[in-house]
Amino acid sequence: MGTKKKTVAVTLILLILFLTACDMLPASNSSPVPADAGTKGITLFNKDQNLVTAYIPKEKVHLGQSLGAAKENISVITDSGSVINTTADVYLSGAPMAVHIPDRDKVIENVVGIYLWEDFNSVTDTFYDAKSYLDAGEKVMVVLLDGFSLKQYELAKEREYVTYLSRYFKHEALSVYTPVTNAGFAAMITGKNPDANGVHDRSFRKMKVESIFGYALNKSRRVLLLEGDIKILDTEIEPVLHMDLNRDGDIDDEIFQTAKMEAQKDYDLIFIHFHGIDDRGHSYGPEALETMDYIKKIDGYIEEISSIWNGPMLLTADHGMHKTENGGSHGMCIQEDMIVPYFKKEQRK
């Protein structure tokens, strides 16, 4: 859909909202997100912005007609974590929130969000990309940049804080609902959404399906997971945990030092989990100077690790983050929390 068509689509959606008296989010995350923004109704968003939030139609509404494009691609996201890809040729209804797909004679209930997209990419692609490298006999490094949203990446790029990472940006990716670490991490390493892998939020640690670690082990490949100070998920391998040895209030620097050392060894799969972007986003806000400066620091970490690791690298986030009155948070089905960047660096020649 071209820019002009997208503008018309947004205008039509806003008109529908006016007629049905639903609430709207600010057009940019430069303003704090209301605390109840993702707790009622349906949120409609694309890779760039929230179109509407808390949308509860008073009567059945045809989404494609509202958009002016019934063939627009959408993903229907439910509170169980399922993602159903279809077109905008669907009807929306409230109480309970549901999407009706006429050509499949199907009703999807407990809908929390609808994602409008041109090219669909997901954090679950991490599993399949890593598997592809392993199947080809290559080694691969995966880096989880906790809490790094697409909006943060775009701002950091604009300010030239990610001069290394920006060389390898591939596309945006959809995270999972609920957009928190346990769920996003599990989706990355299993290739499945929460409804299939069983990890829905922070209270879940055990996965119902095999992870990339189990897959690699079954292929007799050497694997390593570098984690912070706690074990987040029960996987087929035990993570290497880290402590804040230099007492600087951060653990990523210790993870970084371990990563440089281990990258020189004969591992087939190394998974690194950096936490500091998320920590600063919570404390200061996703676009705060302290957070942006730390993103620049992580960019330097990645560049140095990459100079040692002679293999492909996949980098993405478990979830994004939205601004609040006192800093930042995540866990809502909104653009800031659900859309993250995806990077891919091929093997050095």
Question: Main traits of this protein?
Answer:
globular; 6-stranded mixed sheet; 5-stranded mixed sheet; Alkaline Phosphatase, subunit A; 2 domains; 349 residues; single chain; alpha+beta; 23% strand; 17 strands
* Rg calc: 20 Å
Helix content: 25-40%
Order of helices and strands: HEEEHEEEEEEHEHEHHHEHEHHEEEHE
What is the number of helices?
11
How are the strands of the biggest sheet laid out side by side? 11-17-14-10-13-12
CATH superfamily of the largest domain: Alkaline Phosphatase, subunit A
Question: Strand-residue fraction?
Answer: 15-25%
Major beta-sheet overview? 6 strands, mixed
Organism: Geosporobacter ferrireducens
Protein name: Metalloenzyme domain-containing protein
Keywords: Signal
InterPro entries: Alkaline_phosphatase_core_sf, Phosphodiest/P_Trfase
Can you describe what's shown?
The structure is a single chain. This protein has helices spanning 3-20, 63-67, 125-135, 150-158, 181-190, 194-197, 212-218, 252-262, 276-284, 289-308, 335-338; strands spanning 42-45, 50-55, 61-62, 73-78, 83-87, 91-93, 98-101, 106-109, 111-117, 140-145, 169-174, 223-226, 269-274, 313-316, 322-324, 327-329, 339-345. It is of the alpha+beta class. It has 2 domains: 3-117, no CATH class; 125-345, Alkaline Phosphatase, subunit A (3-Layer(aba) Sandwich), CATH 3.40.720.10. It has a 6-stranded mixed sheet with strand order 11-17-14-10-13-12, sandwiched between helices.
